[in-house]
Amino acid sequence: MAEFSQKRGKRHDDAVLGSAVDFLLANARLVLGVGAAAVLGIATLAVKRLIDKATSLRDKEDDTKGNTICLENGWRELSLLKATPRPQPRPLPAALSQPVSTLAPSPAAPEAPGDNGPWMPPHCSSPAPLCLTFQEKLLAFEREHLAIPTVDVAVAQQLACDISLELQAFLRNKFPELPFGTPEPGGPLFDGLQASAADPVRLLVPLRLEPGLWGLVPGADTVARDARCWAVRRTQLEFRPRGSSPWDRFLVGGYLCAQLLLELLHKALATSVNWLAISSLLGCLVRPNVISEELLLEVRQEHLNLTIAVLPAVVGAGNNDSVLLAWPLKGLARNLWLQDFYQAESTRLRALDDQDAGSRQRLLRLLCGVCCCHPALGRLGRDHLTQVVLHLGEEEVDWAEAALGSRFLQALEVLIDGVERASLLCHFNPSVNLFGSLHEEEIDSIGYVLYSGLQAPEWLLRGGVASMGSDAGVLCAPPSQDFGEHFTLAFS
Q1: CA torsion sign, 248 to 249 to 250 to 255?
Q2: 409 and 133 in contact (C-beta within 8 Å)?
Q3: What are the pLDDT digits (tens) for 195-248?
Q4: Which uninterrupted H or E stretch holds 282?
Q5: Which of 109, 179, 377, 417 could potentially form a cystine with 117 if both were Cys, beta carbons 3.0 to 4.6 Å apart?
Q6: Confidence of residue 36 (pLDDT cuts 50, 70, 90)
Q7: How would you write the chain as a 3-class SS string?
Q8: Distance between the two ends of the chain, CA-based, in angstroms?
Q9: Using CA atoms in the order 5, 7, 9, 13, what is the torsion angle rounded to 10 degrees?
Q10: Mean pLDDT confidence for 341-350
């Protein structure tokens, strides 16, 4: 206010001075004459401009200083306002009938004389995060990613049985001279051990060999020196010469050659079967896998994917209960027959579980479901994992559901031990090393993943979810874009 009065006084003085100058200039014409009055006016105007310029500079400096002082005073007042604590609004009572309780002053705020301090809201502790044990996570993985709806299992089993009947009719019409037995569908899908779509339905096609004309030779005693295989030798050639048996067309050096039989059936399934008619009859799309060396059939319905492996087999030859499969082997063993232990393994696991109501078969499903989702563990097949479960099943006592997580970790330890020694012996034939067919790089990769999974087993389950997706049933799959086109062709 004082500054404003000073400025107003200065402006009043300037106005008085200007009035006096104007009066002198007005009367100078009469006293000094016109010329002198003009010179005096010019000089007076110059002096006035100098006076106005000096006055305006001083006023600007005063205004700047005043604005700075006002700004500092405003910030000081604002800081005082922020420092003053404001009381928080009180919460509403839970019910109108309940009285509002008097709030105690906050102990953290300093108490001033005559002031109870600002009200502070009560600190609500957040609920503790839900921590699941590995056992619970394992059961959740089984429930969400390995459980197959009963309807899908029934549909898949019915399709497998129908295709086996169609295949039996084709073999009888195409090769009437070859006495094939009745195809028998089976495998994990029929035994309740299906863990992923990678587990095919096993369609066993037995060969009816004449008794007394065929004998078995262990693979270890042959040139191949492979304990996994057997050679089927033709006998009684002096009494039943070559050509008296319909299977003599597949003889190589006096032995029944599995490779020749596989090539014949592979060509027939790829070129001679009317799969469009069969697909139209069964209401699904059935076609052979011509790329694989195995005899595989791919079955696709609207929401169902299924693989059927056709397995020509020699059962019970030479007073032996073993099952020998025609399998695409490599090297010197390509003419031999691979011994199959699936039926014996599944029967043994079922018998052990029936004795103590155990969970060995569930453990096998979990191991298969986890391993098939990791590229490095994909080389661990069902045969490897079954041997591990059988090994634990014979030794461990507690196989209740509550111990399933512990048994899972023990299975990883057994696998790691086998990888370190590069040896996993077959339960029914200890002379067979199931890791013998793996390369050193594959064994190293498997060992690294297994060791990492043993340190953090949840990582294995997360990898399974990421690879398998969130589909509940592994047999279920969304229909592909070209399914409608193939299905239309099947009915055309």
Answers
A1: positive
A2: no
A3: 776 689 999 999 999 988 999 999 999 999 999 999 999 998 888 899 899 999
A4: helix 275-282
A5: 109
A6: low
A7: CHHHHHHHHHHHHHHHHHHHHHHHHHHHHHHHCHHHHHHHHHHHHHHHHHHHHHHHHHHHHHHHHHHHHHHHHHHHHHHHHHHCCCCCCCCCCCCCCCCCCCCCCCCCCCCCCCCCCCCCCCCCCCCCCCCCCHHHHHHHHHHHHCCCCHHHHHHHHHHHHHHHHHHHHHHHHHCCCCCECCCEEECHHHHCCCCCCCCCEEEEEEECCCCCCEEEEEHHHCCCCCCCEEEEEECCCCCCCCCCCHHHHHEECCEECHHHHHHHHHHHHHHCCCHHHHHHHHCCEEEECCCCCCCEEEEEECCEEEEEEEEEEEECCCCCCCEEECCCCCHHHHHCEEEECHHHHHHHHHHHHHHHCCCHHHHHHHHHHHHCCCCHHHHCCHHHHHHHHHHHHHHCCCCCHHHHHHHHHHHHHHHHHHHHHCCCECCCCCCCECCCCCCHHHHHHHHHHHHHHHHCHHHHHHHHHHHHCCCCCCCECCCCCCHHHHHHHHHC
A8: 103
A9: 180
A10: 93
Could you tell me the two tokens for 37? 């009055």
